[in-house]
Amino acid sequence: MSSPVNDARASSAGDGGAERVRSRGEDSTVTSMTVTELQAALKDGATSVDLTRAYLDRIAADDGTLGAYLHVDPETALETAAAVDAAGRAGTGLAGLPVALKDVVVTEGVPTTSGSKILQGWLPPYDATVAARLKGAGTVLLGKTNMDEFAMGSSTENSAYRVTRNPWNPERIPGGSSGGSSAAVAGGLAPWAIGTDTGGSIRQPAALTGLVGHKPTYGSVSRYGLIAFSSSLDQAGPMARTVLDAALLHEAIGGHDPLDSTSIDVPLPVLAESARRGAAGDLSGLTVGVVRELGGDGHAEGYETGVLARFAEAVALLESLGAEVREVSCPAFDLALPAYYLIAPSEASSNLARFDGVRYGLRVGDDGTRDLDEVMALTREQGFGPEVKRRIILGTYALSSGYYEAYYGQAQKVRTLISRDFNAAFDSADGSRVDVLVSPTTPTVAFPLGARVDDPIAMYAADLCTLPASLAGVPAISVPCGLSDGLPVGLQIMAPALADDRCYRVAAALEAAQDAARGFRFLDQLTRRTADATEGAA
Amino acid sequence: MSTPSQEARVTRQEIAHLARLARLAVTDEELDLFAGQLAVVLDAVAHVGEAPVEDVSPTTHAVPMTNVMRADVARPSLPRDVVLAGAPAAEDDRFRVPRILQEEA
Hints:
The structure holds 2 protein chains of 2 kinds.
Chain A (H helix, E strand, L loop, with lengths): L26 H5 L3 H9 L4 H19 L2 E4 L1 H13 L11 E5 L26 H8 L3 E6 L33 H8 L5 E6 L5 H7 L2 E4 L19 E6 L2 H11 L18 H8 L7 E5 L13 H16 L3 E5 L7 H16 L20 H12 L2 H14 L5 H23 L8 E5 L15 H5 L6 H6 L3 E9 L2 E8 L5 H19 L5 H14 L1
Parallel strand pairs in A: 2-3, 2-4, 7-8, 7-9
Antiparallel strand pairs in A: 1-3, 4-6, 5-6, 5-10, 9-11, 10-11
Chain B lengths: L11 H10 L6 H18 L34 H5 L5 E2 L2 E2 L10
Antiparallel strand pairs in B: 1-2
Helix pairs in contact in B: 1-2
């Protein structure tokens, strides 16, 4: 497929200083390419150093405004790239391609904070499996991306370090918790990135910034070395400009890992090939279920009309590609939000007990007059931000005797009901079976910075559509399906456990059909608009 | 089984107790803030209690797996000095911690 390079790019130089995060000059010919195009460029003689430098230049120019990264080490990145070039590896597999990692992924000798002050300055002594696999594949680490503290949040505003802006509109949130990764990729500051998803933290930011983001089947990507938030829900996955790019990144990080006892010991399905096949555009024989409880009749409260309109158009497009579409009811999905906001904080309150000021990170108040408990309590008071404290207290409450059955126990039973709804949709023998379920990825487009930061319940509602797949452990992808109010809208495709390939196939079919109708790729609208705005200002 | 009340009330004393259980020093302002917010969140999550869950077993984990075993083979662990390098305080090849036991009165 040829690159829909747009002509506005070359004229986008300028310094403006302004509101909008700008795309600059020639570098954007590299930094708006897909990964498959970058691979082709490497095979055609470009070096990994060339590509890495292009992204580092964009980071130097734009990240002061965008706020996507917490840590960038240009020297080491260029050294790694030069070594890949010298070894003649660039262009084979993923070798020589730059990548960004969410700061929840531990990286040996590279600062890792999980967005928290309690880990400021910590240098991990080992690599997460995800990081090790990408390193082994010869990728070049551009940097570590910003996130809500310990991945708790839906806007990245809970980061202890900096604000991250949405490249489509700098007054809007980039989603969260993987908002640094989404802003970096959408803004052309990384070709792709790793995010993690506990209740929607890959899919929601991908949707709000016009990316493809996939939450793999629980247990299919190793959690070894991911700083744990909610262990029964956390999954790492790809965030990319296209469905095929996401599939390639997923294949590089996925598969069994003996270091994670919850890792599933079966081979990954073929993902990139499914994306390529899906892009051919034939969905005949596929049955798509539209989940009534996620924005359908009687369940549309809180959903923007623009989001529902783009979603309906995308479903019609799937139908026109040969898919059979029917509505499916999953009644327990109505209870996913309360169940999630009991289960995740409960697990978090336990997981975050490891931040005790003893083995790593911050220690406060150890002046010889205080005992261990007091030092621990002071360390955690100063090291954790408000949302983390809120969730620790909520989780401690939900797990405490007298409340355990009514809250945590009940939420776990609701989790069973949600899995049953998925099973009924995917496995029923009465002819009502569907191959995938679809919904909007989020009820609204990206909201303004600050709009929900003081209202936890409104913030939690951003995850409404992504929580059921998290609780059931099934794979789900978000793929762009248009704009509403000039901001991206995502469509979510959910599939049975271990059938991640279906997500990629259907997403690629939708992406290809929309690209063909539009005449260029979804994210190229952002490049064009940025260029136009620059011209307009000049 | 008790059902969560329709309108949860959380006192400052309860927050102080929970914070103590969680080894979290909290300021006076935080006690007020969290008491209010916890009540709001509990109200919002209380309808898990409405679910028809008689005879439903809880799900702790989406992928059913039990007793995942590996071969009992020793593997090298991280070098001690590398691990201690990340600690706030270390002494004699160990983590150094503040006093654990109160002195006898």
